[in-house]
Design brief:
alpha/beta; two-stranded antiparallel sheet; globular; Peroxisomal Thiolase, Chain A, domain 1; 12 strands
Length: 389
């Protein structure tokens, strides 16, 4: 397979933008990515578009890419619509990577976008409710207290994890404090005000033990990535960042290993490295406990040692392995279809040395982990991407 480079990245700020539509968000992100790469729309051979909830929130189905990008100068190009829950744009990246690695295209543009905010919050929550097998029995208590089926599921996983390893709600609060500090340094982040452990613990209870600050929020945004072959990248001014691995797996009902573990192992094998080689990572922290659980899933620490790792400071900005220096889903924001692409953009900036005060010094190898949906007690899909200079 041919080497594939990331040569341009761009995104919008993430937030709640009731006065903006998907088109305007996409146009801004695409413009920023192409400018960053030093190319034009004429250099884009194909477009891979990730969006999760457009049909539910605004009614746009079937031709989401063609509709969202109709004014972005990309009309007429091959467009691939990708819907895979929260992992939609990570999946789009995987497909674009395969297309270039195989020689089908020399260049491709990945766009992830989501417009989740709505005047009627029930519409936004309904979008999340569809990311499960609707014929699967709902566990007792799920969707009854918080109003969010996913936060109730995360809460149940958190309680089970706490019982197994002795973790405490204060450990979840430490994740949020770290997240908000990172976001305070990120001009694209949705929540940029720093917080304290006490403030996190005392925020409104959503689903025991998750408080409001421990849960990712509804938001809007778009992110775009210009991919190209190694030979094409050499013509451009930017320092290329290479995709070393991209693995995707789906849930196995009754399986012994969760999707994140399986995807991580496949990516490590593909890249020929181990977790000890990762300098900076963006993890799917849709809730604060998820980040801690992923430390263990991805081998950043031994099973049961995640509380010790978050308390050590080794995962802070500038730490041994800087985790979620963008602020992650908790603070940068989680507009579903844009999340995976935004993870890759942050890691690209980190590997280029362009992350400013968020920079992990000497970063050369990076990892992104992105989940989507729920199936049989596990995420329905997981992708792990490994990048390097």
């Amino acid at each position: 397979m041919n080497k594939v480079a990331i040569s341009g990245v761009g995104m919008t700020p993430f937030g709640k933008f009731l006065d903006r539509n998907v088109k305007s968000l996409c146009e801004e992100a695409v413009r920023n990515a192409l400018t960053d790469a030093g190319v034009t729309v004429d250099d884009v051979q194909a477009v891979y578009f990730g969006n999760a909830a457009g049909g539910t929130v605004n009614g746009q189905e079937m031709i989401r890419a063609q509709a969202a990008l109709r004014n972005a100068g990309l009309a007429g190009k091959p467009m691939f619509n990708v819907e895979n829950a929260c992992a939609s744009s990570s999946t789009a990246l995987n497909l674009a990577w395969l297309a270039i690695a195989s020689g089908q295209y020399e260049t491709a543009l990945v766009v992830g976008a989501e417009k989740l905010s709505h005047e009627d919050k029930a519409v936004s929550f309904k979008a999340f409710a569809g990311a499960v097998d609707i014929e699967e029995p709902v566990p007792e208590g799920v969707g009854k207290g918080s109003g969010s089926i996913f936060m109730d599921m995360y809460a149940a996983k958190a309680r089970k994890w706490m019982s197994a390893c002795g973790g405490q709600p204060a450990d979840f609060a430490r994740v949020v404090v770290k997240s908000r500090h990172a976001a305070s340094l990120n001009p694209y982040a949705q929540f940029r005000k720093e917080t304290t452990v006490d403030e996190v613990l005392n925020s409104r209870m959503i689903s025991e033990p998750l408080t409001l600050f421990m849960c990712s929020s509804i938001g809007d945004g778009a992110a775009a990535i210009f991919l190209c072959s190694e030979s094409y990248a050499k013509k451009l001014a930017n320092k290329p960042v290479y995709i070393r691995a991209s693995s995707i797996v789906s849930a196995i009902p009754g399986g012994s290993e969760v999707v994140a573990i399986r995807a991580g192992r496949a990516a490590y094998e593909q890249a020929g490295i181990g977790p000890e080689d990762i300098h900076v990572a963006e993890l799917h922290d849709a809730s604060a406990p998820a980040e801690l659980i992923h430390y263990e899933n991805l081998g950043f620490c031994a099973p049961g040692d995640a509380p010790k790792l978050i308390r050590s400071g080794d995962v802070d900005i500038g730490g041994r392995i800087s985790v979620n220096p963008s602020g992650g889903l908790l603070s940068r924001g989680h507009p579903l279809g844009a999340t995976g692409a935004a993870q890759i953009i942050e890691l690209t900036w980190q590997l280029r040395g362009q992350a400013g005060k968020r920079q992990r010094p000497g970063a050369m190898v990076a990892l992104a982990e992105n989940n989507g949906g729920q199936l049989a007690g596990d995420s329905a899909v997981a992708l792990v991407t490994v990048l390097s200079t």
